[in-house]
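[Backbone geometry]
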Amino acid sequence: MEIRNIAIIAHVDHGKTTLVDELLKQSGTYRENQATTERAMDSNDIERERGITILAKATSVEWKGVRINIVDTPGHADFGGEVERILSMVDGVCLLVDAAEGPMPQTKFVTSKALALGLKPIVVLNKVDKPAAEPDRALDEVFDLFANLGATDAQLDFPHVYASGIGGWADETLDGPRKDLSALFDLIVRHVEAPKQLAQANEPFSMLATTLGADPFIGRILTGRVETGRLKQGETLKALSRSGERIEQFRVTKIMAFRGLGQQTIEEAVAGDIVTIAGMTKATVADTLCDASIDVALPSQPIDPPTISVTFGINDSPLAGRDGSKVQSRVIRERLMKEAESNVAIKVEDTPGGDAFVVSGRGELQMGVLIENMRREGFELSISRPRVIYRDIDGVRHEPIEEVIVDVDDEYSGVVIDKLTGARKGELAEMRPAGHGKTRIVAYVPSRGLIGYQGEFMTDTRGNGVLNRIFHDWAPYKGPIQGRRQGVLVSMETGVSVAYALWNLEERGKMFIGAQEQIYEGMIIGEHSRDNDLEVNPLKGKKLTNVRASGTDEAVRLTTPVRLSLEESIAYIDDDELVEVTPKNIRLRKRHLDPHERKRQAKSA
């Protein structure tokens, strides 16, 4: 059977996973009476809740005697480590673009990786049935994007179709019949080349591992595309590291291939197909699994370096151990090392004390997803404020710069530009009308300046703005950037919060807690209206007397407290504060300083 391997690329919320749903349905993957779910490829709970793709996943459909392996790639640059590995498995890419919004920053990131690998793109202009759709403008912007990214003439001569993922149709012309996706299927079969590896089926077996998984019954499993040769169950392979060093020799216990949404055991893996192999104990991502006669490892794609780091520590607050079952530093370390093994974009380092770990990654969203997964698994953690990773280039300190693209109502464009280019040290690159009363702003801003800006941006634009960001380049250090302007309200007592005390404290600032909540000394319970921190007593009750007078016994009505999400909490805290994360609670608190640290800070002040 002929094979086509293709990856689907799209910006967040451009309809990629919905389109894959329709490809599965119309290819006959599902039985007539089979129960199906929306966004079938988003199998992770967090993916479903947030509506984003985090993990790269493969599926397989058959169309007119051709097997099409489809890889769903993450749309956010924070999960670019997934993208870079996955693109090495495919022979073509399908770029999905919203006909109203055009290509966006995350599209640019993944597309640049695909074009650099020499992959030929197919462009799908999605959501052309939306009232605000401008497919011709979007197509021109895609061409300009390819040209700016250094595409070859062959890549610039890309075919395109007009589609509606939710409507389940794609046509080569805008006024087509709008019946089904057969035009897209035929275009994939016609335009994407068959794997070159098919011609090397008689050579010794080799495969580059691109994703790592675990099965409760068969143990460690690695997925990748077979580069050369054939493999049958029971044969012996060896694993080579990137540098060609032998890691282990193992017997293949199982070979599985993607068939629809699931995986099926197959007798033989053939060059060009994407398969999963079991039997190894040490081999991991980017290693080469090969025949004993091969001594040279397959080349693997270099991974972009991390740009921010966060310190993960044990939860040492007075309420530690009440919600979670995994609280020891040893258990936290094991979990982080396991994550770093399967996610090559993350690096974990031990701190000198051994009870905290510095985790480096691509961005706040990637860190937030990792922390959210850990708290759902029963971990308790204390998390520091994200710190930018600097580089020394020719003896000069450089910092990461991000390209920020903002779509905002015209009336709010002034305040956005002022915030980005003023205190946050950004540079305005472009500003133009985006139609329908919107302005598009493009700016280059230091990563430091964007930590904690998302919440401020939503307030400034009354919730109507859309901000997208992506790593742009390294630039010389821009100088100090002012952090959070407001101080915090810190509890000076341990106990259960009292409504009367919180009611009296409301004039001091916004509250993060409500009445009858467990609090402790050093816990942050609100934001101060001024720029200094203030210690307060949220346990102070009303003094009772036997005198009754009009107006003194009015009911206490508290303002609804501000509940910060996990990402908002991490971005909100200052350098001397921590986020306490448990399976049931997210709290903010002041960092416990040992006497030596207190003396050092006092001297520096």
